[in-house]
């Protein structure tokens, strides 16, 4: 099983969520064939014996580092996340960047397999299984100047346009290198963060870092779409890996059209990363009906206001008794829908964030919005342009930082991430 | 089952940790009798049917709000935590404080049962079970002036002495009221935080707030003592609820000696809360042997350097081949051990914290140290006094904030927390 088979991954989660039910328990035990064994679990004297014992345990779930795509894109949301950007150190260039990407890839490969980092491991994740750890690496626009590789920089990485509602902090935006860490255990995630920071050594220094979280597996009786800190079901409209055009929308074609200089991105994806503060005190003052109007879906089930269940298609043309569209013309889910944007689609895979209380006394909390697409100009940009003009949600959110990163394909045969760029 | 029976609680966790093992799965299903059913789980159309289905799910675990002691003291560590202090608003006194404690208790009771807050619930925790949510309330020294109750203030609440290594930020210390929230799901914990803040209304405003985390249940193959962000097993020496003197050490006697004015604290406990930064960059430069000398225990297993396993008693008198004590005279676990402090003992129940990167570029991470005792002058104070003078760990930590709170007993028969003080 590799990370690029999200269906298996998801169904394993589904088992975890209901493993206590008499029927499901047997099912869980019957389904161990696909589980990757984790060394720490098998070696542990206290460990459940055999791989059957590990399957239902959150810690044992392992995601492959190598593969067609990097992990952390179609991997189910994890309970904890860190996203951070690094800048190459003054004087560091292509050679140092290549060495760093090799060290980082080696470390990520070990940690995602539940093994300690080579050298002096801090021990923070000792005893724990990989806990669905993923590490994902990307390159920012400035990386290509720093490494003398501007000729191989895809135009898809051109800076995002300005949006009128942007309140961006440059200190927390962009950066030469981007790292996304996710895991279902907070110590496993922190351990990876520290190990990768250590491997950066003198080659790069942290530019910014953010922490996020999502539901813990098993918190709901059955797995379901995530909620965000506004209380909404968030992720419903995402393209599904089973859909025929999923790969085309999310991943750069492996050997598609486009200039040969950009072939290193075949199988890769572009990540847009935005720290979006939620103005929760204002939001909470709205009635439930007002909140539902803002999105165009009910809060409890995520169903369109035009009826049905979460998965029912929105009836965007439906007119209410007052002669107005039931899903308001400025409703967030209407404006962002692919059919309103020439088919523009992205895979949203966010973390919530909560950094305590801001200077003005309001909660410093919101969405670490991360979306994935084969081309930001046919994903994030047109949708955000439209939202920026007329989204009812705008009043309750504030975009505080922004980054756009080229995320290379997954490594093959002991490659490191980005090798096809840096040595190609 | 009530929260005051930590053994049942812990054994339930133990089952969760190994539920996938063929043997344990049967056991888990057989043990459902004790599980409190959670409404959201039972009502959910997607939910596992019947209470047997809920048991193995992290979300279904429920801790009682009412009881002899408040929840969140002997409750097993949760994956997420918020601790925060409030100050009563100018003009608010005993009456407003009593009304607030009633509102807060009502809300905590609902949320800990997995129900929405009364009034407009934000929906953030919808679908999730209570996920071991606990809410714990305490009163700081200043609360008693604000409410005109100084005659009933226990001397145990006298300000802690200054310690030479203290680098305390007054803005993040003390406060009239203290609230501790813990849950195994981040959205459940955040939901409780927001609901309680909302209930504070005009009566109190947040003074400071901190976020923390621990291992997720199931991250290790079998439940075990927690690790902290230095990578050490942390909690080994804690008094165990099964020990005969546990209650005497941790809880104020229900009808013990002491003046009648303080009877309202019978069954309560005192919490010392310190934000202790770890100087992780310095720590990581030490060799494993050096790190183990600092504590006096091995990092991998937590066993004393004098041999054995985690639970072996430290042989403090043992001399090594170099003529020096094997567990160094300044080792943290030696200096803090009850036998070195006239039996002084406390229950340490911390969260790790990680708030990104500090202004100086080092990680803003460490331990939200929370310890519980019947009397801080026979728990925290003598131990910290000794650590302050000679602890090898001092070099690698920095106490940044401090609070001491009187945590009343658990409420009975629809009481609110603190009612015996505020209406007694
Ligand atoms: C804090 C900020 C945001 C919140 C709280 C939010 C919330 C939501 C919610 C509740 C939905 C409906 C359920 C769903 O389909 O997932 C939704 C849909 C969507 N949002 Fe957002 N959103 C935010 C920002 C953004 C941004 C910045 C973009 C992209 C520019 C975006 C793009 C979309 C898309 C494409 C959909 C799916 C529409 C469909 O296919 O039906 N959202 N969002
Ligand atoms: C970041 C700060 C601290 C760290 C990393 C830390 C770490 C540890 C570790 C690894 C142990 C050995 C395992 C165990 O018994 O739990 C320990 C024991 C202990 N620590 Fe700390 N500690 C810290 C601060 C404190 C403070 C401030 C106090 C109280 C004033 C304290 C009191 C104790 C006690 C009472 C023991 C148990 C000793 C025994 O019974 O054997 N610690 N600590």
Write the layout of secondary structure elements.
The structure is a homodimer of 424-residue chains.
Chain A: H1 6-17, H2 22-30, H3 39-43, H4 50-55, E1 80-88, H5 94-112, E2 134-139, H6 141-146, E3 177-183, H7 186-200, E4 204-213, H8 246-250, E5 269-278, H9 280-284, H10 288-295, H11 332-335, E6 347-348, E7 351-357, E8 363-373, H12 380-390, E9 397-407, H13 419-422
Antiparallel strand pairs in A: 1-3, 1-4, 2-3, 5-8, 5-9, 6-8, 7-8
Helix pairs in contact in A: 5-7
Bound molecules: protoporphyrin IX containing FE (HEM) (2 copies).
One protoporphyrin IX containing FE binds next to strand 5, helix 11, strand 8 and helix 12 of chain A.
Structure description:
The structure is a homodimer of 424-residue chains. Chain A has 424 residues and is an alpha+beta fold. Chain A has one domain. The first copy, chain A, has helices at 6-17, 22-30, 39-43, 50-55, 94-112, 141-146, 186-200, 246-250, 280-284, 288-295, 332-335, 380-390, 419-422, and strands at 80-88, 134-139, 177-183, 204-213, 269-278, 347-348, 351-357, 363-373, 397-407. In chain A, strands 5, 6, 7, 8 and 9 form a 5-stranded antiparallel beta sheet that branches. Chain A has a 4-stranded antiparallel beta sheet with strand order 2-3-1-4. In chain A, helix 5 (94-112) runs antiparallel to helix 7 (186-200). Chain A is globular, with a radius of gyration of 22 Å. The two termini of chain A are 29 Å apart. The relative contact order of chain A is 0.17. Residues 1-55 of chain A have low confidence and may be disordered. The interface between A and B is large, with 81 and 83 residues. Residues 228, 230, 232-237, 276, 278, 295, 297, 302, 332-333, 336-338, 346, 366-367, 369, 380, 383-384, 387, 397 of chain A line the site of one protoporphyrin IX containing FE (HEM).
